[in-house]
Every structure is written in C-alpha cells, then in structure tokens.
Write a structure and sequence with these properties.
The complex is a heterodimer of chains A (286) and B (222).
Chain A lengths: L4 H6 L5 H31 L5 H5 L4 H37 L3 H16 L2 H11 L9 H27 L2 H9 L4 H31 L3 H4 L4 H12 L2 H34 L16
Chain B lengths: L1 H5 L1 H34 L3 H16 L2 H11 L9 H26 L3 H9 L4 H31 L11 H12 L2 H41 L1
GO cellular component, one term (chain B): ATP-binding cassette (ABC) transporter complex
GO molecular function, one term (chain B): transmembrane transporter activity
Membrane topology (chain B): Multi-pass membrane protein
C-alpha cells in the first residue's frame, strides 16, 4: 500500500495490529471529514448561501460569456507576458554567466532587484507614478509590463540553473572540437539546457497566470476583475469569488501536472546517463 | 526627503504591518505546513487525500484571489475577520502548501536504506526521525523554506489590494497625497530589497550551519 517514497522512508510495512489500527483510524477520519463538511454546509445554509440560483447564476448565457471573456483576458495577459519575459530571462541568464564584468553586474542587479520587490509595487509605479512623468500607457500594458519585468528575473534564474545543470563534459567536448565559446553555448549547451528547463518554464507560466490577477488592481478585464464587476451586479460575493478561485486552481493544476509529466519523462529519458535531474522548481506564491 | 521625515510615523507603521504579516504568516505556514506534510505521508488514506487536496488547492490558487475570497466572500457565510487577520490567514494557507511540499521533498532526499538501517537497529519512530532522517533532510529543506519566507514577504504586499495599510499601501496613499513618486517608491522598494536580501543571506548562513552540524554528527557517529 505504501507507494510514496516518503512513506516508505518513515514507516515500516504495518503488521496485523498496525493494519487494524490504520483501518480504525481511516474510518474515524472519514467520519470526521463528513462531519466537517456537514458543519460547513450547515453554516452556509444558515446564511442562505446555498440557494441554487446563487451558485448557478453563471450558467445563464450572459454571465457565462462575460466570465469567458475574463478568461480570454487572463490568457491574453499571461501569454503575451510569457512571450516577452521568457526570451528576456534567457538573455539575463546568459548575461549573468558571461565574464564581461559590466554585463554581469547589470544582469545580477536586475535579477536580484526584481526578484526581491513585489509586483504590486511595480504595478503601482506604472499606474500612479509614471503617468505624472508623462508615461501613461494603455491599461493592458500597465499590467503586462510589470509582469514581464518581475518574471524576467525569476525566469532568468530558471534558465541559469538549467544551463549550469548541463554536464561540463559537453562543453569541454565542444571546445576540444574547436568550437568557440559562443558556438558551444548556442549549439551544444543551450539546446540541452532548454530541454532541461521546459517543465520549470511551465511552472513559470503558473506564476504569470497568478500575477495576471493584478488586473484587479489596474482594472484590466481579466477573470478576477470580471468577477469583481459581476459581484457589484449580483452581490453573490462568496459564490463568484469561489468560482473564480476554482477556475484558477483548475488552470494552474493542469499546467503543474503537465510540468510534472514532462519532468518525469525527461528523467526517464536521461536515467542512466545522469544521476539526478534538477528538481522541479517551486512556483512562487503570489 | 522632507516628506519621508514628516511621514516617518506612517511609513514605520506600514513597515511594521508588513513585518507582522510576514512573520505571523510564515510561522503559521510552518506549523500548518508540517501538519499537512504529516497528513500527506500518514498511512491513513483519507488524511492523505485531505492533504493532497489542500496542497493542490492552495498551491495553485493566486494569493490575490484567495485574499479577496477570504476578505469579501467569507463574511457572507458569517465569517467576519478583521482585515489584518484575513491577510494573515490567506498568507498561512498559501504558504503552508509550499512548506508542506518543501518538507516532503526534503524527506524524499533521504535514501530508503538509511531508515531501513535505523529500523534494523531497533530504533523507534521518534529516534529514527530525530537521529537519522531529519538531520539529513533538514539541510535540503532550508533553501526552499527560506524561499517561502521571501514569498510570504512579497505576497504580503497583495494585502494592500484588500485595504490593509502595509508598506505598499502606505506608499501608494502617500503618493496620491504628495505626488512624489520616485522618492516614495524608491524608499519602499529599498525596504523590500533589504528585507528579502536579508532573509536570503540569513538562509545561506542557516544552510551552512545545518549542513555543518549534520556533517559533524555523522563524523561523531562514524
């Protein structure tokens, strides 16, 4: 029954007595969970939050398309930010790995700066500060440019880890064939590094998707903002925000699972040839 | 500079709120995250299921979406928390999912032979955990756990969007009042930078110390 490695590390295979205890505990916990669900439902019912029209209002065509456009807005922000942030991150990673001191310093500074400050601060800067200096962008870019800036830094670290994870023998071999440093990077190291970081780029996409919720702050019509506007008509706050949260979870869960799948496939392909691959980087919280 | 001096009180209050949110959120996340990690590795199937659902939900939900749900959605169900605690609760929920995964993958780095050897020597569960597994797992958990701390710090800025006056919120308010954008954003940017880099440096020190002490212990035991 113990399939997880961490479980086999911590516990022995249970004996007959252990199995009985586990069975009893399983029943007890299951009952406890059912009781908890009943308490939650009772609490919701006591405040009239379970009425079907409050939960199913969004199945009406008007509301459904309204929310669907929100999801389109979310994708538009996320994907465009990714298209800019990923190559930018790669350049920063390469800049950080060069021996040229000035380029190196600028790239390190950029990465450390944007990794350490919250995106909301950057958004406020674009929203409130820069317009008074004559830089008043379209609302869409007030969301997407901060997304690009902040995520270029985190993506740079993903690429850097990937490049450093390529075996040293590869670049040594390339150089002994007479390739220049640039050719080695472009023809030998990068193609392998890109394959290594592919799963981590997907988790990076999850961070971008999460960051796109700040459209709520700049009033760009993505899912979160659409949810907010909807609640001002319906006043179904709990229901709308729950549904919005669940949609985000499903989207991100799909991306994370895909990343995990690519990761395990990559590990299998290279088993034998390399001991352990880079761990799947954790997504950022915000 | 005059603005900073005359509003030092407000700015300091904002900074204190940010630090409080971060510290309370992180400590809570550590406790809850470890409990959920225990759930996820326990031999009791429904507990494992609860742990998995918990982690997948809170790891994948955007923090802002969670904050808004807690602050503006839950009051409808009779759960009315002060705004500050809405922030703390959301930070705990979100952070604990990441703590849980860091702890779990830390334990997974210990090779199975280590615990089998410990059990073969007749060590109990506590001894096995204290003397064999945790000393080895801890070293690889420090860095991800520090990342959660920095994530909590940066995430705490989103509490600004639900109206908690932490440093980001204060900066934005003062900017509306004085229109001194460059100075104000510089000050709070530097504040975040110092706190994040400080946490990172602290993590580095901690990591070396944990690695050294577990190394020493191994040498003593050898």
């Amino acid at each position: 029954m113990s399939t997880q490695p961490s479980q086999r590390i911590l516990f022995d295979e249970p004996g007959p007595r252990g199995r009985r205890t586990i069975a009893l505990a399983t029943v007890a916990v299951a009952l406890l969970i059912i009781a908890l669900v009943i308490v939650v439902l009772a609490q919701l019912d006591a405040h009239d939050q379970l009425e079907p029209q409050k939960w199913f209002f969004f199945t009406q065509p008007g509301f459904a398309t309204y929310m669907a456009y929100g999801i389109v807005g979310t994708f538009r922000a996320t994907l465009v930010a990714a298209v800019f942030a990923f190559p930018f991150g790669l350049l920063l990673a390469l800049g950080r790995l060069t021996r040229q001191p000035l380029v190196h310093a600028v790239c390190v500074g950029w990465v450390e700066f944007f990794r350490s400050i919250p995106m909301l601060l950057v958004v406020y800067a674009f929203l409130l500060a820069l317009p008074s200096y004559g830089l008043n962008l379209d609302i869409y870019w007030k969301l997407v440019i901060p997304m690009i800036l902040v995520n270029s830094a985190t993506t740079a670290e993903v690429f850097r880890a990937g490049i450093l994870a390529v075996e040293k023998g590869q670049s040594e071999a390339a150089q002994s064939l007479g390739m220049s440093a640039r050719m080695t990077m472009a023809l030998v190291v990068l193609p392998q590094a890109l394959r290594l970081v592919l799963p981590n780029l997907l988790t990076q996409l999850v961070s971008l998707l999460k960051d796109s919720t700040l459209g709520y702050v700049v009033s760009y019509p993505e899912l979160m903002e659409r949810g907010r506007i909807l609640t001002s008509y319906t006043h179904y706050l709990l229901q709308t925000y729950t549904i919005v949260a669940v949609i985000y979870v499903l989207l991100n869960f799909g991306l994370t699972r895909l990343a995990g799948y690519l990761q395990s496939r990559g590990n299998r392909k290279s088993a034998g040839h390399r001991g352990s691959r880079t761990e799947l980087a954790a997504t950022t919280m915000a | 500079m005059e603005i900073i001096r005359s509003n030092a009180g407000v700015l300091l209050d904002g900074l204190t709120t940010t630090i409080l949110l971060t510290v309370l959120g992180y400590l809570g996340a550590l406790v809850v995250g470890i409990v959920v990690a225990i759930f996820r590795v326990s031999p009791i199937a429904p507990l494992r299921a609860v742990g998995t659902v918990y982690v997948e939900f809170f790891r994948n939900v955007p923090l802002l979406s969670l904050l808004i749900l807690v602050a503006f959605g839950l009051p409808d169900a009779g759960l009315l928390l002060p705004l500050f605690w809405c922030g703390v609760v959301s930070l705990i929920a979100s952070g604990s999912a990441f703590v849980c995964e860091s702890v779990r993958s830390g334990i997974n780095t210990v090779s199975l032979g280590q615990s089998e050897a410990a059990r073969a020597l007749g060590m109990g569960f506590g001894q096995q955990l204290r003397l064999v597994i945790l000393p080895q797992a801890l070293a690889s958990m420090v860095q991800p756990l520090v990342n959660v701390l920095i994530g909590t710090l940066i995430g705490s800025s989103l509490c600004s969007a639900i109206g908690i006056s932490e440093i980001t919120n204060v900066t934005q308010q003062l900017n509306i009042k004085y229109a001194e954008a460059v100075l104000l954003f510089l000050v709070s940017g530097v504040a975040y930078l110092v706190m994040a880099l400080g946490s990172g440096a602290l993590g580095g020190v901690l990591e070396r110390r944990v690695a050294r002490s577990s190394h020493q212990r191994r040498q003593v035991q050898a």
